[in-house]
Design goal:
CATH superfamily: P-loop containing nucleotide triphosphate hydrolases
Number of domains: 1
Order of helices and strands: EEEHEEEHHHHEHEEEHHEE
Distance between the termini: 36 Å
Number of helices: 8
Strand order of the largest sheet: 6-7-8-3-9-10
């Protein structure tokens, strides 16, 4: 097992132009568990992830890892944004994108080492995209693009993996590959955080759930969080979840 520490989120709040997006979030996220961030549209799921990493400013609160601000330790984090936030017209090949995961280990002005090339090649092979290495990233399908960015995250060799809606608009095979790798990372003691909007069958893959609706509705093991009361508080009304069970 990895010796990773948990991430401690303490009273984190975020506002956009005086509109409260997240209110007073406190939780401890532990490694070795696949943790999903769920909630309705506008609940603050992506906002929580970005605020934890310091990618957007918080109004108050702290996020600590090894008792230091997480935003000061981003070399230990791999962050994969939503596909809609990536410029797919950028003239980069699959190999270029995966090698970007090695920049922090190498720095921009030095040549990539044999080790870095070997790590990147192994990551590309792990996601089943090695034969596309010379293909421009913009010419790939959504599922293929998501696999390439997963390979880039693996190539970083981080302690913490953060994914913002990695399952949106992908094929079934890619979904299987992604969850297989997520479970491998968790088994290795990594800390894996995944924003997901789907309350369907994929929810069964997660160990712990963070259920949000601007404030924290519930957090803990999946079966404890997925109660009718919690889902009503988060979503209101009648909710379908876990492959058709009605709440």
């Amino acid at each position: 097992m990895s010796s990773n520490a948990p991430i401690a989120v303490n009273r984190l709040s975020v506002s956009y132009r005086a509109v409260e997006a997240l209110r007073d979030i406190s939780l401890v996220i532990r490694p070795g568990r696949l943790v999903g961030i769920f909630g309705p549209n506008g609940a603050g799921k992506s906002t929580l992830l970005k605020a934890m990493l310091g990618l957007i400013p918080n109004t108050s609160g702290s996020v600590l890892y090894h008792n230091k601000p997480l935003m000061q330790q981003l070399d230990k984090v791999a962050y994969v944004p939503q596909r809609s936030q990536i410029d797919w017209s950028y003239p980069a090949t699959v190999w270029d994108v995966v090698m970007m995961g090695r920049v922090q280990k190498t720095d921009w002005f030095r040549r990539f080492s044999t080790t870095s090339r070997r790590v990147a090649a192994a990551a590309l092979e792990r996601v089943g995209m090695e034969k596309y290495r010379d293909r421009p990233i913009g010419q790939l399908s959504g599922g293929q693009q998501q696999r390439v960015f997963l390979a880039r995250a693996l190539a970083q060799e981080p302690e913490i993996f953060c994914f913002d809606e990695p399952l949106a608009g992908i094929d079934q095979k890619t979904q299987e590959v992604i969850f297989e790798i997520f479970h491998e990372l968790v088994a290795a003691g990594k800390l894996v955080l995944v924003v997901n909007h789907d309350l369907g069958e994929t929810i069964a893959h997660f160990d712990d759930l963070i259920l949000l609706n601007q404030s924290l509705v519930a957090y803990g093991p999946r079966r404890q969080v997925l109660t009718k009361e919690n889902l009503y508080r988060a979503y209101g009304g009648r909710v379908m979840f876990a492959a058709g069970e009605a709440a």
